[in-house]
Amino acid sequence: MNNSNERRRKKKKRKMPLDMRARSRHKSLSCGIVQVLKYFNSKKVIAKFLNTGHQVVCDAKSIRSGCVRDPYNPRTAGIGFIGEGLYDSLSANGKPYRSWNCMINNCYGNHESTKKQGHHNGYTVVPEWHNFQNFAKWYEENYPNDGGKYTLCRKINKNKVYSPDTYFFATYSCAMTVKLSKGRVKVTTKRKGKGIVKKQKKTNKIKNSVTGEIVHINNMKEFSIKNNLDYITLTQLCRGTVSHHKEWRKVNKIDN
């Protein structure tokens, strides 16, 4: 009995470490300041990240070494964070994370490569996708499962906000064609004597074989979506590599 009483007294005499008292602060390696809220024992401590307000349960060793991590810390370009959920950077061979990381950095990153490539120009990401968990879930639900390789492509050319409503998955060849054309009429200048003559790029003209209507297309992507046409086949039609696509065909000199 005496021995058991002595052991109980020793346990009661054990003092809480000074650095683990409530409100004591520690610096983490990459997530800012961590504040201790409640100490139970060396293996269970409730702490809070001051930058985000997120609370975690961890051991005292992780807090002292600075290894404790905040899933809501915006470590990607100061905007994107991993969040809590089923997905991490290795999910689905890392494809969702690479796509998300590239998207965030293209819009908010300060790398020289993104500046040279002409990114940033007003492009933003919808706040819902700042959390990688939301983007990864959308990626998993919408990525085609036919074994092909796809990339994010805009539904509307003038739109500059990455969101579930404005972007979709397209093949690399289709996405590159969109980037090269973008449906814009470019204006070039040619010097003729002392003056400057402006010359516009020609628009594509196709004819409806049923109604006989001739249409001038400035934006092939929007036209294909509105008329339920295949964008790649429509591009080939305008180039003359195919004779027709559904009820549409390329306008000849005789039609003009």
Keywords for this structure?
29% helix; four-stranded antiparallel β-sheet; 256 residues; 3 domains; alpha+beta; rod-shaped
Structural write-up:
- Helices cover 29% and strands 24% of the residues.
- It has three domains: 2-65, SH3 type barrels (Roll); 91-181, no CATH class; 203-250, no CATH class.
- It has a four-stranded antiparallel β-sheet with strand order 1-2-3-4. A four-stranded antiparallel β-sheet has the order 12-11-14-13, with helices on one face.
- The longest helix has 14 residues, at 95-108.
- It is rod-shaped and about 105 Å long.
- A hairpin with a 2-residue loop joins strand 2 and strand 3 (44-49).
- It has eight helices and 14 strands.
- With 256 residues, the protein is α+β, with helices and mostly antiparallel strands.
A few lines on this structure:
This protein has eight helices and 14 strands.
